Amino acid sequence: MELNIVELSRLQFAMTAMYHFLFVPLTLGLSILVAIMETVYVMTGRPIWRQMTKFWGTLFGINFVLGVATGLTMEFQFGMNWSYYSHYVGDIFGAPLAIEGLMAFFLEATFVGLFFFGWDKLSRVQHLVVAWLVALGTNLSALWILIANGWMQHPVGAVFNPDTMRMEMTSFYDVMFNTVAQAKFVHTVSAGYVTASVFVLGVSAWYLLKHRHVELARRSITVAAAFGLASALSVVVLGDESGYTASHAQKMKLAAIEGMWNTEKAPAAFTAFGFPDMKDRETHYAVHVPFVMGLIGTRSLDIDIPGINQLVKESADRIRSGIKAYDALMTIRQDKAATPPAVRQTFEQHSADLGYAFLLKRYLDDPRQASDAQIEKAAWDTVPAVAPLFWSFRIMVLLGFSFIAVMIYFFWRSNFRRQTYPRWALRAAVAIIPAPWIAAELGWFVAEFGRQPWTVDGILPTALSASHLSVGDLALTLVGFVTFYSVLFVIEMGLMLKYIRKGPVQDVAATDEWMNRHHSRLAGTHVMPTASLTPAE
């Protein structure tokens, strides 16, 4: 297969996946925030919380619709652009996708309609249940998608059948409770909660700067700051869990992220800064923080984290082992039921390394004819591009800690400074609205680019996974997707900005009447309503 076909297929899928993920985190987080706001409304009966629920729910609905449209397109690409991948591992990968469609998506889609059109047809409690079911369906969709992706990162619960030439599931339990998948799920949804919190915070800050919808904005900031602080802290903690699972399941990815070329004496240091150089196989001007990487990666002080050079040597050994499995597989394909037991035994002994032999397919048709130089070259192919991973990870982490600082500040101002906010802080809240999306996209870049050269880690190389399409077909569809998605992006931004500028337009009379009574009661007890901005600030 021509490599440019593979690269074009990767580019097209990366573009559609990263565009789709512009919508996912906001959908995940807003679904929970909206349900929280409606819970407060049901508990207190205050119309302002109903108005908040409807307003932020409208923005959720716009985002949800476009997220569904882009997600469906992405799933069709498995059959169109990655047909051999779908054939090879479809029995495993297809199961969580099917469950996501049958259970989570239908649950989500069904109750979204009831959420928007059931306000006057359902009781308060019934509508609240609907809101939480929408949130549950949204998060369940993410769970099953991330179980599928987690299996690609750490393939468990499946074996290769030499008679069918396909991977077959042996334990759905192992696939579902894959440690990598579970760590990815909690980390991803927490990042989505941070994204929505920053979004609500920024939009509300803009309202306060414009002196519009002040009561809604103040309450929204209070909710977003509390929820966002808990979420931002959990992202860091759960990110640590992802690092720990990577040290067991994806050692090369972890070494590349760290720019760690040689195995260090335990506990390994964390490289805070440096310039990884693939040519010299060295990280220049590295600034190390002692012990940190060892604690994150192994949670111990005496276990080594292997470096890139050591892992390349291990890959070369696995390629040689995989060649033995490949030789036995060719005999099984030829002799079928008449295959000698010794050949099948040889295959079973080396079958775990068969995927490494497939890495040689990039250089020659028959891996059994590979020279030592080709084996060495294929072994180095297991090293992803270090510098992009190194810097993407560090920018993502820096943004993650900045979100904690932002949420702590607004939580403090909301709860201990009577909801007063300096103008510079409100402007900063508006300015950082795009930041969580940048962090999320960088996180997916680290996860997916760091897995290369594998579609399924250690099992199926990316170079063998693509469909046999022409360069012209891929170029044409790539241009089509870019054009179509650009139009959708303009529509999305136009609708979101339109409804943000318009502000809450539902339940205005009831809310204003309640607010007037509320302020009258406060004035009667000589407690004046807190201003959203203090003149001195």
From TrEMBL:
It comes from Jiella flava. Belongs to the cytochrome ubiquinol oxidase subunit 1 family. InterPro entries: Cyt-d_ubiquinol_oxidase_su_1. The keyword Disulfide bond does not apply. This is Cytochrome ubiquinol oxidase subunit I. The keyword Heme applies. It comes from the Bacteria. It is a multi-pass membrane protein. PANTHER family: CYTOCHROME BD-I UBIQUINOL OXIDASE SUBUNIT 1 (PTHR30365:SF0), CYTOCHROME D UBIQUINOL OXIDASE (PTHR30365). GO terms for molecular function: electron transfer activity; heme binding; metal ion binding; oxidoreductase activity, acting on diphenols and related substances as donors, oxygen as acceptor. It is found in: Cell inner membrane. One of its GO terms (biological process) is aerobic electron transport chain. Its main location: membrane. Keywords: Cell inner membrane, Cell membrane, Electron transport, Heme, Iron, Membrane, Metal-binding, Transmembrane, Transmembrane helix, Transport.
